[in-house]
Design goal:
With about 350 residues, this protein is α/β, with parallel strands linked by helices. The protein has helices spanning about 40-60, 110-115, 140, 160-170, 210-225, 235-240, 265-270, 270-280, 300, 320-325; strands spanning about 10-15, 65-70, 85, 90-95, 120-125, 140-145, 150-155, 175-180, 195, 200-205, 230, 245-250, 255-265, 285, 305.
């Protein structure tokens, strides 16, 4: 498994999808549903797009875990990367969400799957900070360099520096926070719409960082180890070009296959020279998801990468010791009843 590019992902297949009215105030990328389109039609289109993303990732050898969501009160559940992140060494983060109607997107079944199929040592849950008005929306708010251990964060209502410092101390990242605004002075709501960090290439709209000193510090940190930088324009960011993610698939013969997943809209906004730089290290996999993009997120937002070691098949399920103390099976491995001591 690559340190930066996960080989497995979690996707959520939401059967009821509509742009979330609770997030429209500070999400400049969000759009209204086209006039005359019924919720049923929008949901059906979004489902087809979700399935297309899953199929495209499987086609390049990425392991995809899909969770169905039939709860119609969770309009943004298709974006699980905002509430959960995983990290090498067996750590899982659970994050506080800005919009109150997003907070029940957190799912115990996703965490249980991670524990049963991957090596999880600890789950660090920051969601208790929500009543205090402190938020950090996972790998939407943070773009993580897992190799150099840097967390790039555009300050916003959804990315509080206090909890960022706590996360970085707990997970051993260097915080690199900065202000980022568009040409109208509106703050970037999630860092992952303006930046993507891959193994050997990064995409970032550095011009959205108004402080020239901080802008050059970010540039230097991104490229210090030889990583190529593709500088995005504000127009490309609005086309979701920054909302991409590097993944590690497999060729049929088992060789690693590095891909950059993004939407067809994002891919179309890139210049040929930018595409050439990206394709020096990974192939671009693009999927058309115009309905989902109405909600202000794109392919990166849909993907919660799994940076955990997989358990061997033989290890899955409870051990004999655990079975022995299960009240439904009160017989120990040596044939004695549990209550006999």
């Amino acid at each position: 498994m690559s340190a930066q590019a996960p080989s497995a992902v979690v996707l959520v297949r939401a059967t009821r999808f509509l742009p979330n009215p609770a997030t429209a105030a500070d999400n400049a990328f969000q759009s209204d549903v086209p006039a005359g389109e019924s919720p049923e039609v929008i949901s059906a289109r979004a489902l087809a797009e979700m399935d297309a993303v899953a199929d495209a990732l499987r086609a390049v050898g990425v392991r995809v875990h899909v969770f169905e969501d039939h709860d119609h009160t969770r309009p943004d559940s298709v974006f699980p990367n905002n509430w959960v992140s995983t990290h090498a060494g067996g750590l899982v983060g659970v994050f506080p969400m800005y919009a109150s109607n997003r907070r029940h997107e957190r799912r115990a079944d996703v965490l249980e799957m991670l524990k049963s199929e991957y090596r999880v040592q600890a789950v660090v849950d920051y969601s208790g900070l929500e009543p205090d008005g402190i938020f950090l929306e996972g790998t939407g708010a943070m773009v993580l360099d897992h190799v150099s251990r840097v967390a790039y964060v555009a300050r916003s209502h959804r990315a509080d520096e206090q909890v960022l410092e706590r996360f970085c101390a707990d997970f051993l990242y260097e915080p690199m926070a900065f202000d980022a605004v568009d040409s109208a002075g509106i703050p970037v709501y999630h860092t992952n719409v303006m930046a993507c960090v891959g193994t050997d290439v990064a995409l970032m709209a550095l011009d959205l960082i108004p402080d020239p000193v901080r802008r050059e510090q970010v540039r230097e940190r991104l490229t210090v180890n030889g990583r190529r930088l593709v500088e995005l324009t504000e127009e490309q960011v609005r086309e979701f070009a920054g909302n991409a993610v590097e993944l590690c698939g497999r060729h049929p013969d088992g060789r690693r296959r590095y891909v950059m997943a993004m939407s067809a809209r994002a891919r179309a906004s890139l210049r040929p020279d930018q595409v050439a730089v990206i394709e020096e290290s990974c192939e671009i996999v693009s999927v058309d998801i115009p309905t989902i993009e109405l909600a202000g997120g794109s392919v990166r937002c849909m993907i919660a990468g799994i940076h955990l070691d997989r358990r061997p098949v033989a290890e899955r399920g409870p051990t004999l010791a655990v079975v022995a103390i299960n009240e439904d099976h009160p017989v120990t491995a040596d044939g004695r009843l549990v209550n006999q001591g």
